[in-house]
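Example (one chain per record):
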Amino acid sequence: MSVVYIGLGIVILLWIAGYLYGKHKNRNKVVCVVEDNCSGCRRCVKICTHHVLEMVKDETGIHAAVKYPDRCNACGNCMKRCKFNALKLIERV
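Predicted structure:
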């Protein structure tokens, strides 16, 4: 029985370590919009919990733009949601 608890404890510790490593790895990154690929579907804007992205209209049409890059924690939720590969992570300046 104690072997099961030890195994479960190891799995939980590895999961926590992976989570913290992912947070540390993306600390110096921010999301960037590739305007040529953006279709203006607003899926990324709706999923972003930090309100980093916003829709803008210019001469090329309506597309997403990074309005508040300082709020971005590079979680990747918007990138997972985008079907058009219009978002990518870049290094912070």
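Caption: Residues 3 and 90 are 44 Å apart (CA to CA).
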